[in-house]
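Try it yourself: sequence plus 7TS, in.
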Amino acid sequence: MNLNVAEIRKDFPILEREIRSGVVLTYLDSTATSQKPIAVIDSMNEYYRHSNANIHRGVHALAEEATAMYEGAREKIAQFINAGSARQVIYTRNTTESINLVAYSWARATLKSGDLVILTEMEHHSNLVPWHMLHAERGIELEFIPVTDNGLLDLEAYRMLLAKSPKLVSFTHMSNVLGTVNPAAEMIKLAHSAGAIVLVDGAQSVPHLKVDVQTLDADFYAFSAHKMCGPTGIGALYGRTSLLESMPPFLGGGDMIKEVKLRSFRPNSLPHKFEAGTPAIAEAVGFGAAVDYLSKIGMEKIAAHEHEITEYALERLEEIPGVKLFGPSADKKGGVAAFTLEGVHPHDVAQILDQDGIAVRAGHHCAQPLHEKFGIPATSRASFYLYNTKEEVDLLVNGIYKVKEMFK
Ligand code: 7TS
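Structure, out:
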């Protein structure tokens, strides 16, 4: 059964928004952040109206209720990615903080000068800069799995790099520019045979694919709520229990301790060891509601719908003279279409589309090295989610023809 997109769109009030008089929003920027369904907005509203209190510290009714909601959401998120236990799901602010948690805690406790970390050329800056910082501070070495001309990782080159005995391999499960879905299970298996730990950037995969961290056998898996129908300000890091238990705390403060003396402390057990201070409680509730929302629809159905839209979009975009698409064919990628239009700057493309209420992104999309690899400073990028339709793809295509007219 296909998704009932017309019904789904009713769940997202913003999709009815007029960007200017008579111009309704065509939202094609879910890779940056997704829109939020009523169920998520209402869950947070209801939490503040009915249950707001600080967690883990009170015995009064509201404190217990808020704690149960916060921890209940963690259970839902754990189930959503098939984590063995909710203790393995650490709340963070976003994917960026999840990656930094691994870099500050695990990596700084483990890596020495000369130790090798393997990344890829298609990483978002959030999976590059923390390692640049560690290179500067510790002298760790960095190597990069090359991206081929058709936007795939060069797995032969990866095998060669693994012969150098890396300590960590970290890569994005799905590229936010090329859309490429990397063969994560295979890459993790190879890394493990080489004795490396694996961190997966799941910012773009968890929202769009069925992710099972146990089947993947990932050691760490990072993602953000705001890209999967949830609120901003909250994300998660999944980790293997033995690793999380052996890691030193990240931030120090309240809630992450068992006991504090004037000159010492004992860290709390998982997952609280990594959650210092009052967390984003309402956001956790919204995160849980987002997971409920996506689960109810079904990730397989969502992925199938996005595939259909992407296939159609690539086909239609390819027909436009002067449009150059980046990334592999639809069968190897998620719902992302990054392109250039000959003779027109990507920012001008986005700005002219915006006049018709069409929201696409232009720039390097926080993947500057990848754009450099392709010899371009920027692309325009349309991206698709469960609420997008083929009619919206048609509006995009018509919009691009309009841009061409204007720049003729
Ligand atoms: N990793 C990938 C693959 C991403 O696409 C993003 C955000 C991040 C990490 C960082 O996520 P955050 O929630 O911590 O910010 N990507 C984008 C994008 O493509 N346009 O805006 C944000």
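One thing you can check immediately is this: Residues 31-32, 94-96, 124, 126, 172, 176, 201, 203-204, 224, 365-366 surround 7TS (CB under 6 Å).
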